[in-house]
Specification:
Distance between the termini: 41 Å
Order of helices and strands: EEEHEHEHHHEHEHEEHHH
Strand content: 25-35%
Strand order of the largest sheet: 5-6-7-3-8-9
CATH topology of one domain: Rossmann fold
Structural class: alpha/beta
Shape: globular
Radius of gyration: 18 Å
Number of strands: 9
Number of helices: 10
């Protein structure tokens, strides 16, 4: 399988603080990749540098063979991005937001079908501000899929969803993966990571401390349970203790 995302020697500092240090990773077409780590481990900075919204100090990034800074306009049509913090006008209707977003892309997906898949078909005329936290989170995932992307970046995609809604989202993403979509995600839910991710990278203080599969993480850490393996590898276990 071809590399959809290729990151080589990526580093970013803020003054004397090294946020990301010599990060290397690759994501294959049609797979789900999880970037994990405690708060402050460097996940957000790494993603921003990968997407080109933040300038790295050194290293190279290619997404679909394109440089995210130099080829930003071309890449914009091929990727979808969902972040936890979004700056949409709260008074805008769901239908207006979806229609306006679809207009930005050359071959957008059918936003009504996406809303239906995510249980939002009855919310077209609702202002974004009137949506529940879970509904808003689903809408932001829909927004990331409207470009009909080849690769999508999802940040804490099921935060605010109840157990059933989370599993419904997992099923949809698994089907999208089956159709060839490449998914790059972050999550603090280890059951989610275990259910969805083909490969993971765990960051600790900006450095990759593990890269491989969930099974390999358990073997490497000596833990039978993946959450325990993650806590041991990420250093969060020490913080809790």
């Amino acid at each position: 399988m071809e590399d959809v995302i290729k990151v080589t020697q990526l580093s970013k500092s803020y003054g004397s603080q090294k946020a990301v240090s010599e990060l290397e990773l690759s994501v294959k077409k049609g797979t789900v990749f999880g970037l994990l780590g405690a708060n402050g481990a460097g996940k957000s900075t790494a993603i921003e540098c990968i997407l080109g919204t933040k300038k790295a100090d050194q290293g190279q990034v290619l997404i679909l063979g394109l440089n995210p800074v130099r080829d930003r306009k071309s890449l914009f049509q091929k990727i979808g991005v969902q972040f936890q913090e979004n700056c949409y006008q709260t008074e805008i209707l769901v239908s207006e937001l979806c229609e306006e977003t679809a207009c930005l892309y050359q071959s957008p997906a059918d936003w009504k079908s996406l809303c239906s898949e995510f249980g939002l078909s009855g919310k077209y005329k609702s202002p974004v501000k009137n949506l529940s936290g879970g509904e808003r989170q689903k809408l932001f995932i829909v927004m990331a899929l409207i470009p009909n992307p080849q690769v999508v970046f999802l940040d804490e995609l099921t935060t605010g969803l109840d157990a059933k809604a989370r599993r419904d989202v997992w099923k949809i993403l698994s089907e999208l993966k089956r159709r060839g979509l490449t998914i790059f995600l972050t999550s603090h839910f280890m059951d989610e990571v275990e259910a969805l991710c083909d490969q993971i990278c765990i960051l600790k203080e900006g450095r990759a401390v593990f890269y491989g599969t969930v099974g390999q993480a358990k073997q490497f850490s000596g833990c039978e349970d993946f959450e325990e393996a993650y806590l041991a590898l990420s250093g969060e276990e020490d913080e809790i203790g």
